[in-house]
Amino acid sequence: ISLEHEILLHPRYFGPNLLSTVKQKLFTEVEGTCTGKYGFVIAVTTIDNIGAGVIQPGRGFVLYPVRYKAIVFRPFKGEVVDAVVTQVNKVGLFTEIGPMSCFISRHVSTPDPSPGPSVGPP
What we know:
Elements: E1 2-9, H1 18-30, E2 34-35, E3 39-50, E4 54-55, E5 62-73, E6 84-89, E7 92-97, E8 100-105
Antiparallel strand pairs: 1-5, 2-3, 3-5, 4-5, 6-7, 7-8
């Protein structure tokens, strides 16, 4: 998915490695975060454009607009996902679904774990 982000860079980073610093800062600031609209940003795949920086008056910082593509994870209601159980206790169990942690109460699970009548043997 195509996304945009603005990188605020301190003047100490101005120099021959400016673009690599902007790229590294993008990875650090964006990967592993969660936005309401797009979900979890798993990884930045490509950087499409690093725009011209805009100097912040009175501060010396420069703001770089960056367009990039990323792999995102946004589960929706009713979606079936694979989860890894990380902890089991008296009140329920904790799972991890990619970057997301989930708690499942024992009160919402079925008491009989056997397959229903419509499920045949494997």
